[in-house]
Amino acid sequence: MLLFSLHYLPKRISTSATSASSAKVADYTWNMPGSGLILGIETSCDETAAAIVERGARTVSSVVASQIATHARYGGVVPELASREHLRAIVPVVRAALAEAHFALSNLDAIAVTSGPGLAGALLVGITYAKALAFANNLPLIAVNHLEGHIHAVLLNERESLKQMGAPGPASGTWESEERAPEPALALVVSGGHTHLYLARPAHGSWTYTLVGRTVDDAAGEAFDKVAKLLGLGYPGGPWIDALARFGNPNAVPFSFAQIKTKAHLGGRPARTKDAKTAPIARLDPHFLFSFSGIKTAVLRYVELHGMRSEAKARVSRVLTNFKPPQTQDDALALCPQATLDLIASFQHAVIGDLIKKTFAAAESLGVARILVTGGVAANRELRERFTAEAARRGVSIAYPTRALSTDNAAMIAAAAWPRLLASEFAAADLSADPSLTLA
Ligand code: KG4
Ligand code: ZN
Question: Closest Cα to residue 93, out of 128, 57, 52, 45?
């Protein structure tokens, strides 16, 4: 087991806007070979998660405590409640991750924590706890951007599959430095807060990111959640729509892509987005911009025009008493009339069609032959089937995380921290939450 210097005192503080706040600490360099065990902590939204990952390539343990039951009755995340729930769960969740791994804190090489983007109060719980753990155990702290975490969820799964296939592990250096150089990839991060396209390029054992496209208003996951709420379905809405869409006709309601156009951008007016200043949309190719608020409004209009309001209202109490989405056609029909199932299927089909169209257009325009799709919405069945079919048709490689690693988890945070540990890029002592942290 590797011993660390007692002098973990950052000399210089980096305030880079493009990555999680970190400082390369000159007198604190991680010496290879260590065991490479990183404890990841994630509390950016409504999941309290802790995981231990070895060398960014093997998940030793992963624990996720979901707050769904707390927020479900409000139909969305209540930030204040999220912070309190994180505070309640953080110690047991970290303990469970250590117990599942059969490790003590003294076995670890570093602690990694999500520093943004996310809910400020929620992030602060994870950051404060991670700081205290790192300080008390004399371990380096690594700040991780949640979006980079989502991308590393795919890379972690790929390395785990390679290992299972018998490929040699990274005895020293990163896995990448020992494998053939990884190809650049176009990463679609599609979640409750983001629908962003990044060009991810390998660089000296790590990755650099360039923003290629993004939503100008709602994220795709947000649209799933809002449409589900409108239809009286459970929270979060994605899994409910995913489950019910299987029993509807995806062509019943002709949502056109014109409803997912980027009028604000094309008209030269500033786009309606909270962090438009930090990620200017004007410099992005309009063909790679998404907009999901139009289709959400179109669903609302359809519901009103077809008298589906009262039916949706009546569903709310039934859904609240049964947290699980229906899995059989009979159960789906017991919950929703066929016309509602058709509307749900048509909505999902249109959103996924738009994600496919713009993602593959961006890959083609950038000359990239590898696509990564990640984030909560990447758990969607139809999304995976159609992206996979389109990739095969175009001869492009495509990868997703496992469904468990698509939604928020801490294994992805620990995996993303591995290249930073190798580069001794540690968080500054004054690390704080950055709710609107960008990746590029
Ligand atoms: O990545 P994530 O867990 O948290 C964020 O970073 O936002 O993503 C959560 C989002 C929610 O909007 C949820 O409805 C959506 O992912 N989601 C899904 C599915 N599972 C989760 N959307 C569509 N189909 C799913 N199966
Ligand atoms: Zn996420």
Answer: 52
Least confident of 42-46, 106-110, 176-180, 183-187: 176-180
Q: How confident is the model at residue 245 (pLDDT cuts 50, 70, 90)?
A: very high
Environment class of residue 59 by beta-carbon count within 10 Å: exposed (0-12), middle (13-18) or buried (19+)?
buried
State the DSSP string of 272-310.
--TTTTTS-STTS-GGGEE--HHHHHHHHHHHHHTT-HH
Half-sphere CA count of 283, side-chain side, radius 13 A: 9
242 Cβ inside 6 Å of ligand 1 = yes
Ligand 1 closest atom vs CA 219: 12
The verdict on the CB of residue 377 being under 6 Å from ligand 1 is yes
Q: Using a 6 Å cutoff on CB, does residue 50 contact ligand 1? A: no
Per the document, the length of the chain is 440
The b-or-e profile of 390-402 (16+ CB within 10 A means b, else e) is: bbeeeebebbbbb
**Residue 275 clears pLDDT 80, i.e. is over it:** no
Ligand 1 centre distance from Cα of residue 295 (Å): 18
Pocket test for ligand 1, best of 71, 327, 377 (most atoms within 8 A of CB): 377
User: Best mutation site among 224, 229, 405 for ligand 1, i.e. most ligand atoms within 8 A of its Cβ?
Assistant: 224
Q: Which residue has the tokens 């983001």?
A: 194
Our answer on whether the CB atom of 43 is closer than 6 Å to any ligand 1 atom is no
Residue of minimum CA distance from atom 16 in ligand 1: 376
Question: For 376-427, what is each residue's pLDDT tens digit?
Answer: 999 999 999 999 999 999 999 999 999 999 999 999 999 999 999 999 999 9
